[in-house]
Amino acid sequence: MSKSKHTIAIIDDHLLFAQSLKSLINTFDDFEVTYHALNGKIFIDDLKKTTKLPEIVLMDLNMPIMNGLETTMWLNKNHPTIKVLALSMDDDESSILKMIRNGAKGYLLKDIHPDILLEALHSLLREGYYHSKRVSDTLVHSLHPNADSKKPKINLTERELEFLKLASTEMTYKEVADVMHLSPKTIDGYREQLFKKLEVKNRIGLVLYAIKNKLA
Predict the structure, then answer these.
(1) Is 124 helix (H, G, I), strand (E, B) or coil?
(2) pLDDT tier at 1 (50, 70, 90 boundaries)?
(3) Arch. (CATH architecture) of 6-136
(4) Hey, where are the domains in the chain?
(5) In this predicted model, what pLDDT tens digit does every residue of 13-46 receive, in sequence order?
(6) How does 176-204 read in b/e, with b if 16+ C-beta sit within 10 Å?
(7) Quick one: fold of 147-212?
(8) Nearest to residue 58, comparing CAs of 18, 14, 112?
């Protein structure tokens, strides 16, 4: 008897890409694609009719009718056990932040090597998160298993916490400065200070830390 494979759904309106991705994944020993939809609305409508939920969803960002961000938000609210891995051609910070803030467990670019995709799928199941090389420099160290037990507790001041929560929204740093009634230069100081304290390299790292520690 063949062993049971982990199930994957692909939500992507580029049919040729989706078919190629399905063929690739079905060559992996531990995974199989059991579903494909051209947009989030079709996926959600079909999901409401079945009890067989996919373990992982590979989610395109830019789709007609219902895009990847809207679909991820719905899944995060209604089926939080489903792990969403964003797949996109966009590597800008704004797109990554929005997807992570709204429940995506990882973010991959569509031009990745198949080995990276396989690594990402295993990481999602093993650790609950995965981020590509282009995003991994921002990954908070404490997201890794057992990191919390090895690292001393990080103490943040009230103002640092306020800044962290605001920085985890879609506000610009200038807007954060306005809300906190501080100069942009002072905000830059808070940002650099938190980068050092939390061992992250940019804003995405701040957001990941805030999400992991239920501060955002």
Answers:
(1) helix
(2) very low
(3) 3-Layer(aba) Sandwich (3.40)
(4) 6-136, 147-212
(5) 999 999 999 999 999 999 999 999 999 999 999 9
(6) bbeeeebeeeebeebbeebeeebebeebb
(7) Arc Repressor Mutant, subunit A (1.10.10)
(8) 18
Q: Is 108 helix (H, G, I), strand (E, B) or coil?
A: strand
Supply the pTM of this predicted model. 0.70
Query: Which helix (H) or strand (E) element contains residue 15?
Result: helix 15-25
Tokens 């494909």 sit at which residue?
A: 36
Share of the chain above pLDDT 90, in %: 42
Residues 6+ apart with CB under 8 A from 56: 6, 7, 8, 9, 31, 82, 83, 84, 85, 121, 124, 125
CA 30 – CA 135 distance, rounded (Å): 25
Residues ≥6 apart with Cβ < 8 Å to 54: 7, 8, 9, 34, 35, 82
